């Protein structure tokens, strides 16, 4: 009997906070670096940006001998094939994942779900409460914070009234942290979040150019569905720290 995979979603009702990018980075880190069996379900209709990123990655490898060599080397070192990416609507996310897993010989550790940037999209709310855990990236922009707090508070209120749903917790974490932004602003937001008893991860992710380094560029690779984040760029990115916190919280 196959083990039950952990369902984790990155979700926020505000767009532009980095959900899809972080879904790819975490999937690649857990799958290629840590050796977890990861399945990704791309529910970000209609763009399905992660599926498109995979198609773009494959095309780049096909026409680039250097990338082909890197892919062969990675497989030789890890024995890890590329993780699968499914396209789905939000309401069908778990069904699509289970249908795929039931046909697979692999026992999956984690299913990462990328949801649309608005909770009003059909099926998003239902999909959220049927995850095991939800992680919500936030930035220091005022509109993002207001929207994010409203979103997390609404989910928490629902959980308090519906103990039977699968969702065990929703956690916020800081993304795209700009060192030029006042530390006082960050401290003020943290004071508000603590007063509302909203859980926030210790890890903060910096705003950095490395998050845009993909397989189409020369040099080191950070964001890719086919490659692990390079060790040089992983250092100081805090991605490994974020993954470690997620592992600890979820018991992955």
TrEMBL record:
<dbReference type="InterPro" id="IPR027417">
    <property type="entry name" value="P-loop_NTPase"/>
</dbReference>
<dbReference type="InterPro" id="IPR002586">
    <property type="entry name" value="CobQ/CobB/MinD/ParA_Nub-bd_dom"/>
</dbReference>
<protein>
    <submittedName>
        <fullName>Cellulose biosynthesis protein BcsQ</fullName>
    </submittedName>
</protein>
<dbReference type="InterPro" id="IPR050678">
    <property type="entry name" value="DNA_Partitioning_ATPase"/>
</dbReference>
<feature type="domain" description="CobQ/CobB/MinD/ParA nucleotide binding">
    <location>
        <begin position="9"/>
        <end position="217"/>
    </location>
</feature>
<dbReference type="Pfam" id="PF01656">
    <property type="entry name" value="CbiA"/>
</dbReference>
């Amino acid at each position: 009997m196959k083990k039950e995979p952990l369902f984790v979603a990155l979700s926020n009702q505000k767009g532009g906070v980095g959900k899809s990018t972080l879904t790819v980075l975490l999937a690649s880190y857990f799958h290629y670096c840590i050796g977890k069996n990861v399945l990704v379900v791309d529910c970000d209709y209609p763009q399905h940006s992660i599926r498109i990123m995979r198609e773009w990655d494959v095309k780049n490898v096909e026409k680039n001998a250097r990338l082909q060599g890197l892919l062969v080397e990675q497989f030789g070192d890890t024995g890890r094939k590329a993780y699968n990416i499914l396209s789905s609507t939000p309401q069908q996310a778990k069904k699509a994942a289970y249908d795929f897993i039931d046909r697979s010989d692999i026992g999956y550790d984690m299913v990462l779900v990328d949801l649309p940037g608005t909770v009003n999209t059909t099926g998003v709310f239902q999909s959220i409460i049927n995850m095991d855990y939800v992680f919500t990236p936030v930035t220091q922009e005022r509109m993002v914070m207001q929207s994010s707090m409203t979103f997390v508070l609404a989910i928490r209120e629902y959980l308090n009234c519906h103990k039977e749903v699968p969702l065990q917790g929703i956690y916020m974490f800081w993304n795209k942290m700009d060192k030029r932004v006042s530390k006082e602003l960050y401290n003020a937001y943290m004071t508000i979040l603590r007063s509302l008893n909203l859980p926030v991860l210790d890890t903060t992710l910096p705003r950095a150019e490395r998050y845009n380094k993909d397989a189409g560029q020369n040099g080191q690779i950070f964001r890719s569905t086919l490659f692990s984040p390079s060790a040089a760029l992983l250092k100081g990115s805090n991605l490994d720290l974020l993954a470690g916190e997620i592992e600890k919280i979820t018991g992955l």
